[in-house]
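quick one, 334 residues, struct below
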Amino acid sequence: MSLRVALPARLAYVPSMRETLTLFRPVGAQELALIAAAEFRAFPPRLPFQPIFYPVLTEAYAIEIARDWNTRDEASGYAGFVTRFQVDAAFAARYPVRMAGARQHLELWVPAEELDELNRHIIGRIEVIAEFPCEHAPVRQAQPSDRDEMISVRLASAADIPALDVLIATSVRTLSVGFYTPEQIESGLRFVFGVDSQLIADQTYYLIDGLTGPVACGGWSHRATLYGADQHNTGPDLILDPATLPARIRAFFVHPDWARRGLATRLLATCAGAAAAAGFHSLELAATLPGEPLYAALGFVAHERSSVILPDGVALPIVRMTRPLASISSQHRG
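---
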């Protein structure tokens, strides 16, 4: 998410002699094992569906993730570790600082393809400064090959709508903080954000299940509507010509507890593959402000910024973005 508080969008360092920046990285047991195999001098490559490497700026935020998320995650081995490392400050200054929900949740966004270069700019060794084992983990621990199996995409049905309504409200109210005002968030939920049942009827809306219900959802459409739930639709939804017009990417939401795990990227890959099979050559979407950084990382280009005036008079900023379909379904990064 883009930084929306009174901090620089990038780390404004003017280093003198080899000035360093201290960063933190919460990791699970498997990633820590790979770090150890590299003699604590490098982080392992990102998984195929992860386009960004996210070191964080504070120890407190890293502890929060390791303690509250990694210990509940099978792929992390139900254990969390906080690593600390020094990186050349001049090198780090090239990357943007992003805010992930709360003001204190600040991350440095490094593209996955530049992680090797970041590793080369690490000064000294990566330290483990805290660990959080889970006392009630299941006996079975995740294997490296389990990761893709754990993220399973399925078509949404009408029976899923009540659970999706809860997921969407939770996602918007948490991940929009710092991007939209409380008034914009609540007005957006009332008039714009939610389930478009036409997508479900068209069998173009997907979800990913957690242990207690859906944790991510999103879809695509061969119809003209660019955004909005059932309460926003106002008339006939014209069919698009795939030879000349882009398919729509619609209604992507992720539960805050499942953010930064590649779920939206997996859903996008599924949608892109289906749209390509239907004959489309490009994609278009209306991004919310918190969603814009993710879509930009996935190759979408912003070409129009506007505000939707909602029935209660509240203006909701959105960003119209497009990208070619070529290769997106095979990139599978997130």
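The mean pLDDT is 84.
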